[in-house]
Design a protein that fits this description.
The protein is an alpha/beta fold and 162 residues long. The chain has helices at 9-16, 23-38, 49-56, 60-70, 80-91, 100-111, 128-140, and strands at 3-7, 43-48, 75-76, 116-118, 147-149. Strands 3-2-1-4-5 form a five-stranded parallel β-sheet. α1 crosses α4 (60-70) and α5 (80-91) packs across α6 (100-111). It is globular, with a radius of gyration of 15 Å.
């Protein structure tokens, strides 16, 4: 059985963006393309209505490009339990009050028992300092946290390992 991956908006944004002249952004774009081209077939991908909503924001042409990348990915539900967990993540200071959507991404993936949450958001989601707080808050609430990681961390790995 393939491992499961929740694809968060930042990954899609890098895939759909025009090539960047910023070296870090260009690197994230290249790694995202590489992961998408070579690794995604090894995983069962999922996204949420929250990702679709975020991807729809902004410039209509850019939004259309982002939504195109998402078109074949199954959309999982935003449940009341996930919303409650996202509030708990903020209450427990795992994420700041300003990161409501980021907490909800984590909570959706945790509720649906997905193995990985793929993101380039290293400020609030794939953050080594916050990771243990997120994992602890999820466990306290009765869920296991997905592994919070960037596409770079899932390059060349065996997706059957859980």
């Amino acid at each position: 059985m393939k491992s499961t991956v929740y694809v968060e908006t930042s990954v899609i944004s890098y895939l759909a963006a025009r090539p960047s002249r910023d070296v870090v952004a260009a690197g994230h774009q290249q790694i995202s393309y590489e992961w998408w081209a070579t690794e995604r077939i090894n995983f069962s991908l999922y996204t949420s209505a929250l990702v679709l909503r975020e991807a729809s924001n902004g410039n209509p042409e850019a939004a259309s490009a982002r939504l195109e990348w998402l078109q074949d990915i199954p959309v999982i539900a935003i449940t009341q339990e996930a919303e409650a967990l996202s509030e708990y993540l903020i209450q427990r200071a795992a994420l700041p009050q300003t990161a409501v959507a980021d907490a909800l991404h984590i909570a959706i993936a945790a509720y649906h028992q997905l193995n990985f949450l793929l993101t380039w958001n290293c400020k609030h989601i794939a953050n080594a300092v916050k990771r243990h707080l997120i994992e602890r808050a999820c466990r306290e609430f009765g869920f296991e946290s997905p592994i919070l990681c960037t596409p770079e961390e899932l390059l060349g790995v065996n997706s059957d390992v859980e």
